[in-house]
Design a protein that fits this description.
Layout lengths: L6 H4 L19 H4 L16 H14 L20 H8 L1 H4 L11 H18 L3 E3 L5 H18 L7 E5 L5 H8 L3 E5 L9 H11 L3 E7 L11 H10 L3 E6 L11 H4 L3 E4 L19 E3 L11 E4 L5 E4 L16 H18 L1 H18 L4 E2 L9 E4 L1 H7 L3 H10 L6 E2 L8 E4 L7 H20 L1 H5 L12 H6 L10
Parallel strand pairs: 2-3, 2-4, 4-5, 5-6
Antiparallel strand pairs: 1-7, 6-7, 8-9, 10-11, 11-13, 12-13
The chain binds pyridoxal-5'-phosphate.
Length: 489
């Protein structure tokens, strides 16, 4: 276990990092203005020199694993390298120092970035309009479902309360549907790893007039393209439902195929995945939602528009809007990063993202498929899913233990135990930003770990051995999470 002291333990009374100048404005007697409210007896902040603070945070940051440090094949999360030019862009004063309430004429450049992104994403997704307001993919799901509900209500179809969700879906899908007041109906995945059309037909018939829509991830959560996507959309539309695309896997399609052309009515895309905005601990997310024209009247306000004179404006005049789902205009600096990423590729080259992502995933699938069982043995999209069920039966070693051992080889473990329909699952997404050498080295590491499962199982079961923190009791840590530092401890 790590022995790194907290910054509070390093504190020494009276030590300072900065010398504040003498206050040259009249001192306000806060106690007389806000009696009993504003003044605290003491504020137990840590007291350290600048050097101590710098070393403390730099050292603990270096113990962390991040995509800038090494291969991070976390399936479904699209942990691609985030180009540093994006960070340079967001630090430019024109982007970083604008105020959300500035008059429109003083922020034309800001509005142009938002306007461009609305248009560029519409073009990439095959949609008619885009809202940049949601702060994450799950938030986009909620907005998309709210738009579907507003559409049904506007047509006198408020009774439509059922949403079809495949059993393989990300947990946020049924959660968003429930949050929006819908009941979910599960659809099974067939032996090919695709939506079971027979089950879909059965459930659509059972829902009858109450069908509100379907949420579908394409490529789906086992990394496969839904080959019957046009038929699926036709079946749902024929029953009066709307098609929602979970676009978390858009990295496999960008520049080569468009969900709007497949028949989807509404979708989200995660800027913090496909469009290279850092995520996890790395920064705020953004989950823009694309819609077809019939849903446009219900969009959240404001929408950025350009008038005939070329001036950008914020349009609040949408009488049927569902209102706002977030403050201001979305996570603006995340949008700037995504803008910089798309601009870097341009219309001509953006297809390279998905082509290389799919190529890397299939290379990994074939090469690692010699050692691990592929869950669905067919051409995959941007991620490859393996099942360690047989390895567990032979050696008693679980996917969790293999994942922990990967840390010792210097990699972040892949996504595991998702999707739930694949037993002892490892979902590996190399992304387009990794080289052949990196992927080959990872495959060699995986082969060594599988060999260890047979020859030295105890080493695998007790991994990780090289991480700052070894094996922890994850159930207890999750159930009794304690992140507080008691004052005076
Ligand atoms: C398939 C899928 N859908 C939805 C989400 C939710 O996206 P977010 O984490 O941005 O809320 C994720 C996140 O990993 C995902 O993988």
């Amino acid at each position: 276990m790590s022995t790194e002291p907290t910054i509070f333990e390093k504190s020494r009374s009276g030590r300072v990092g900065v010398q504040m100048p003498t206050c040259d404005v009249p001192v306000v007697d806060m106690e007389s203005l806000l009696p009993g409210v504003a003044l605290r007896a003491g504020l137990p902040l840590p007291e350290l020199s600048e050097g101590d603070v710098m070393r403390h945070f730099l050292r603990i940051s270096q113990k962390n694993y991040c995509v800038d440090k090494g291969f991070y094949p976390l399936g479904s999360c699209t942990m691609k390298y985030n180009p540093k030019i994006n960070d340079v862009a967001v630090q430019m004063p024109g982007f970083a120092r604008v105020h959300p309430f500035q008059p429109e004429e003083t922020v034309q450049g800001t509005l142009q970035v938002l306007f461009d992104m609305q248009n560029w994403l519409s073009a990439i997704l095959g949609m008619d309009a885009v809202s940049l307001q949601p702060a994450a993919g799950a938030h986009g799901e909620l907005l998309g479902l709210m738009l579907i509900r507003a559409y049904h209500v506007s047509r006198g179809d408020a009774h439509r309360n059922l949403v079809l969700v495949p059993t393989a879906a990300h947990g946020t899908n049924p959660a968003s549907a429930a949050r929006c007041g819908y009941k979910t109906v599960p659809i099974t995945t067939d032996e090919r790893g695709l939506t079971c059309i027979d089950d879909l037909k059965r459930q659509i018939a059972a829902c009858g007039d109450n069908l509100a829509g379907m949420m579908l991830t394409n490529p789906n959560t086992v990394g496969l393209f839904e080959e019957e996507i046009c038929l699926i959309c036709e079946l749902v539309h024929a029953a009066g439902g709307q098609m929602y695309c979970d676009g978390a896997n858009m990295n496999a399609l960008v520049g080569t195929a468009r969900p709007g052309d497949m028949g989807f009515d509404v979708m989200h895309v995660n800027l913090h995945k496909t469009f290279s905005v850092p995520h996890g601990g790395g920064g705020p997310g953004s989950g823009p939602v694309g819609i077809k024209a019939h849903l446009a009247p219900f969009l959240p306000v404001p929408v950025v528009v350009q008038d005939d004179a070329g001036v950008y404006r914020l349009n609040y005049d949408l009488p049927q809007t569902i209102g706002k789902v977030g403050p201001y205009y979305g996570a603006y600096l995340a949008v700037v990063r995504g803008w910089a990423y798309i601009a870097h590729f341009g219309k001509q080259n953006i297809h390279m993202i998905s082509e290389d992502a799919v190529l890397n995933a299939n290379y990994l699938r074939v090469e690692l498929g010699r050692t691990l069982d592929i869950a669905y043995d067919r051409i995959c999209m941007h991620e490859a899913v393996f099942s360690l069920k047989n390895l567990k039966a032979q050696t008693g070693i679980k996917a969790l233990e293999v994942a922990k051992r990967i840390i010792d080889y210097g990699y972040h473990p892949p996504t595991m135990y998702f999707p739930l329909i694949v037993p002892e699952c490892l979902m590996i997404e190399p992304t387009e930003t990794e080289s052949l050498e990196t992927i080959d080295a990872f495959i060699v590491a995986m082969e060594k770990i599988v060999a260890e499962c047979h020859t030295d199982p105890e080493t695998v079961k007790s991994a990780p051995h090289t991480a700052p923190v070894g094996r922890i009791d994850e159930a207890t840590a999750a159930r009794n999470l304690d992140l507080s530092w008691p004052i005076g401890a």
